[in-house]
């Protein structure tokens, strides 16, 4: 790992965050992978499926802002554990669902639990890393999302064919409980950790001291920087939701794949996405190390990401499967690189005591955007039957989001610390 040779225990923390995020995305993506199977069994229309996704996102919106505040109050260790227990229990309860209302209910509970993943994870990164390494650390643990998305099409079809879709939910949930044991055993705040050297602790705490007092919500909501982050999440999070919940369906409808054959294309897409997450965090961190300001490094990197998404316009009209996979892979990698930098903005602009709350506000905005976009997708597929209009939106919103971020937060460096 880059950085001074002062110890590496902070990267063990990133490994735990990476693993939790992978589990988180296996659990949330499974319904998208099983959409054709569940539609065939239960007779769901496109709008019914969109409604089920909507309930997950509604809960995610509510839970995200709540968990941001909770994590700021009780810390990353306990906050993450609570979130994990809720979402894993909800994931396993999918096996008992037998109606639209049942699926909507367990998806709602899953959304509540899963909403704690990023507020807690980013709080942990803020506690364990100085600013110059946070984008890289965030990119690495955010890459767990893509590993989860890779694992899902490799493992879930086999489990479904062997044990049925209900068994697949139970087995994946039970195995993931190993992470909870490891988290509770290993995670402490840096000053409470016995595994941390004095040199590494000094390196982690090398940034200027933050104000000790918590920042009230009334103050956060009055800052343009809060809304810059929230706008970025509102506009671009829905695109990632679309990939997670509808990409298998796109491959089935546009290229004739099924549960047995869409695994390899999905694996390629999410492997490339994984690289995008890490590279996106590395680029801005590297630029900062070379003397760029945080403001310039983050925004130039995000501009490159926004431009790299635009070829998704043409994915619907490409007949060759692997050319379509290449276009989608570029878009998903660019999204993850964008996300690694976007998630770092609150820690660039706000004191540590406020980071969880700002991330919660932004995450709620992203989930609300996802709810709106999900209903739009359901209507488009029900009435038009193609993804062309959906991909046009997907290719446009990143540049719009970056423009709004620049307008509201023209200088990131300590912008909201006064």
From TrEMBL:
| Assigned keywords, A-Z | Membrane, Transmembrane, Transmembrane helix
Localization, UniProt:
Membrane
Membrane-related topology note: Multi-pass membrane protein
Q: Residue ranges of the Major facilitator superfamily (MFS) profile domain?
A: 13-413
Q: Which residues form a coiled coil?
A: none
A single GO molecular function term of this UniProt record: hexuronate transmembrane transporter activity
Classification via Pfam families: MFS_1
- Please give the CDD domains that the UniProt record associates with this protein: MFS_ExuT_GudP_like
Q: Is Transmembrane helix tagged as a keyword?
A: yes
Q: Which InterPro entries match?
A: MFS, MFS_dom, MFS_Na/Anion_cotransporter, MFS_trans_sf
Q: Which GO terms describe its cellular component?
A: membrane
Domain of life of the organism encoding this protein = Bacteria
Under the heading SUPFAM superfamilies, the entry gives: MFS general substrate transporter (SSF103473)
Q: Where are the transmembrane segments?
A: 52-71, 78-104, 163-186, 227-247, 267-288, 300-318, 324-343, 355-377, 389-409
PANTHER family for this protein: HEXURONATE TRANSPORTER (PTHR11662:SF285), SOLUTE CARRIER FAMILY 17 (PTHR11662)
Q: What is this protein called?
A: MFS transporter
